[in-house]
Design a protein that fits this description.
single chain, alpha+beta, Heat Shock Protein 90, 3 domains, five-stranded mixed beta sheet, four-stranded antiparallel beta sheet, 14 helices, about 55% helix
C-alpha cells in the first residue's frame, strides 16, 4: 500500500514537469531501502532521508513517515528537537545547493523548495508524532497508576478482612472458650465429689468433661479458619510436617488403628516444598474425609489417593457402601468449611454419593495459590461493584478502536501528501514565470526577440536624429524609449533587420524632447 501511494504521488509530481524527473524517480529505491532501518538507527536514517529529499522531492512521503516514527519513539524532548531541527536544516541546505543544477536554474527556487519540504516532510509529521507519542505514554502511565491504586485498594481490603476475622476469632475464643472452661471445671469437680458414691453419675461427669475438652479443641481448630491461612491455633497447629506424606500416613494409620480398612495411594513427590496453605488444606481434606467415614461408614473400605504434580495437588477420599448405622449425627458444617478453604486457594472441591452406594470427596488444590487467591479476590471485588465493573477508585481509560486509528492515519497521510504536492507545484511554477527573456544580439531572428515591439511615437521622434541605416536593411523596429543620460533628452534603441529577418544592427542614440527643441523644429 505504501509503495502504491508513493507511486501515485510520483506520478502527480510528474504532472508538474519537475526537472530531472528520471533522477528523482531513481532515488526512490534508495529511500525505500533505508526506511526499514529506522528502527535500529532512527536518527541517522532520518538525516540521510532529509538530504535525499533535498535532491529529489519525490521521496518526501518516505521522509515524512520516518519523521513521524522517529518522533513517536523518541522520549527525550531535547534529542527529538535536535533530530527534527537538524533534518530540516539539512533538507533546506541540500535543496538550496542543488537548486541551480537539479532545480529550475536559480538558488531562490532551491531555498523555497527546501522550506516547503522541511515544513511538510519533517516539521509537521514530527509534531504529529510527538503529540501522539506523548498521548500514548501518558495513557500508559495513567493505566499503570490506576492498576497500582486498584491493587493497593484490594490489598488494604484483604488486610482489613483478615484483621476482622482475627478479631471475631479472638472474641469467640474468649467468650465461648471461657464458658466451656467453666463447664469442664464444674464437670471435673462433680467427678471428684461423686467419688465412689454413684458410679453411673461419675461416668456421666467424666463424659461431660471429655466432651467439653474435645469441644474446646475443635473450637480452637475452627477458629483457626477465621484467622490468616497457615496460622491455625489449637493443639493441631500447623507444623513443618503438616500435609506431608508422613502426616497423611499418620492420619491413615490412626484410622486403621480405629478399625477402618484404609489404603493410601500416593503419586508424585512429597509436599514438604509446597506452601503452608496447600499442605494445611491437604491435611484438612484427608482428616475430614476419614472423620466422616468413622461417623457414617465405619465398616466400609476406604481409599485415600494423593496425586501431586507441578501444578496441582489432587486429594481423593473414597469409601464403599456400608450397612452399619451411623454412630452419631454430624453438624453438616465440615464439608462446606472444606469447600471454602479449597476455593479460597483457587482450587475446586466436589463431594457426593457414588452410584455404588459409597461416598467420595475430591479436592484439586493449586501448588502455587498466590495468583489464584489474587485473581479470585479481584473477581469478587469487580462483581461487588454497583455497575458490575471496576469501582470509582480505579482508572478505566478507553482505547480507540484499531480501525478508527488506521483510518485517521491514512486520511492524515493523504492530506499531508496532497498539501506537499500542491506546495511543490506552486514553488516550481513560480521561478518559471519570472525567467528573463534572452538579451538581443546580432544574428537573432525577429521571432526570437519576445517583448520587442515597434512604437510609432519613438519612430517619429527618431526621424531626423537617427544614424544612417546599414546596408541591406529592409526594416527597423523602435521599442518604447526610456529616460536619457541627462535632462531634456530621450534614449532610443533601433533594431534593424535584413531580408531574412535577421538582426544586423543595434543602434542606441538620444533625441531632444519636443519642448526643448528649437522653434523651427516645432513647426
Amino acid at each position: 500500500m505504501a509503495v502504491a501511494a508513493l507511486g501515485l504521488w510520483a506520478v502527480a509530481l510528474r504532472l508538474w514537469h519537475l526537472p530531472h524527473a528520471g533522477f528523482q524517480l531513481g532515488v526512490v529505491p534508495i529511500a525505500v531501502a533505508l526506511f526499514p532501518l529506522r528502527r535500529r538507527r532512527p536518527g541517522a536514517v532520518l538525516l540521510v532521508l532529509a538530504v535525499l529529499t533535498g535532491l529529489a522531492a519525490v521521496i518526501g512521503p518516505v521522509t515524512a513517515a520516518a519523521a513521524y516514527t522517529v518522533a513517536l519513539g523518541t522520549v527525550r524532548p531535547r534529542h527529538r528537537a535536535r533530530l527534527l531541527g537538524g533534518a530540516s536544516l539539512l533538507l533546506m541546505a541540500s535543496a538550496t545547493a542543488t537548486g541551480p543544477s537539479l532545480g529550475a536554474g536559480t538558488a531562490v527556487y532551491g531555498v523555497e523548495l527546501g522550506l516547503v519540504l522541511a515544513v511538510t516532510a519533517v516539521v509537521v509529521p514530527g509534531l504529529v508524532g510527538t503529540v501522539y507519542g506523548q498521548q500514548t505514554r501518558l495513557l500508559r502511565a495513567l493505566r499503570e497508576r490506576g492498576d497500582a491504586a486498584e491493587r493497593a485498594r484490594r490489598s488494604a481490603d484483604s488486610e482489613a478482612r483478615t484483621h476482622e476475622r482475627a478479631r471475631i476469632a479472638a472474641e469467640m475464643h474468649d467468650l465461648v472458650g471461657h464458658r466451656l472452661s467453666l463447664i469442664s471445671l464444674h464437670a471435673g469437680g462433680l467427678e471428684l465429689a461423686l467419688g465412689q458414691a454413684d458410679s453411673e453419675l461419675r461416668e456421666e461427669a467424666v463424659l461431660v468433661r471429655r466432651t467439653t475438652r474435645d469441644a474446646m479443641r475443635e473450637l480452637r481448630q475452627t477458629l483457626g479458619v477465621l484467622g490468616p491461612l497457615g496460622r491455625d491455633t489449637g493443639p493441631d497447629a500447623l507444623t513443618d510436617a503438616t500435609g506431608t506424606r508422613a502426616d497423611v500416613e499418620a492420619l491413615v494409620a490412626e484410622s486403621r488403628d480405629g478399625g477402618i480398612a484404609v489404603r493410601l495411594e500416593w503419586s508424585g513427590s512429597d509436599l514438604d516444598v509446597r506452601p503452608a496453605q496447600v499442605r494445611r488444606a491437604v491435611h484438612r481434606v484427608v482428616r475430614e474425609g476419614l472423620t466422616n467415614v468413622h461417623r457414617y461408614a465405619a465398616a466400609a473400605h476406604v481409599t485415600v489417593r494423593v496425586e501431586h504434580d507441578e501444578r496441582t495437588v489432587r486429594v481423593t477420599v473414597r469409601n464403599g457402601a456400608s450397612t452399619a448405622t451411623p454412630a452419631e449425627a454430624g453438624t453438616g458444617r465440615g464439608l462446606p468449611g472444606l469447600r471454602e478453604r479449597v476455593e479460597l486457594l483457587g482450587g475446586t472441591f466436589e463431594a457426593g454419593a457414588l452410584p455404588s452406594g459409597g461416598f467420595q470427596v475430591v479436592a484439586a488444590i493449586p501448588t502455587e495459590p498466590a495468583e489464584a487467591v489474587t485473581r479470585r479476590s479481584a473477581a469478587g471485588d469487580i462483581a461487588a461493584s454497583p455497575r458490575g465493573g471496576v469501582d470509582d477508585g480505579a482508572v478505566a481509560l478507553p482505547r480507540a478502536p484499531r480501525t478508527a486509528r488506521a483510518w485517521t492515519f491514512v486520511l492524515g497521510a493523504a492530506a499531508l501528501w496532497v498539501l506537499m504536492t500542491l506546495a511543490i507545484g506552486l514553488v516550481h511554477s513560480q521561478p518559471r514565470s519570472t525567467v528573463r527573456p534572452p538579451e538581443p544580439r546580432l544574428g537573432m531572428a525577429y521571432q526570437d526577440l519576445p517583448g520587442i515591439f515597434d512604437s510609432p511615437a519613438e519612430r517619429a521622434a527618431a526621424t531626423g536624429h537617427e544614424p544612417p541605416r546599414p546596408a541591406g536593411t529592409v526594416g527597423c523596429v523602435y521599442p518604447q524609449a526610456g529616460r536619457g543620460p541627462r535632462p531634456g533628452v530621450f534614449a532610443l534603441t533601433r533594431y534593424c533587420f535584413n531580408a531574412a529577418q535577421r538582426l544586423i544592427s543595434i543602434d542606441r542614440f538620444t533625441v531632444p524632447s519636443v519642448r526643448d527643441a528649437p522653434p523651427w523644429e516645432n513647426r
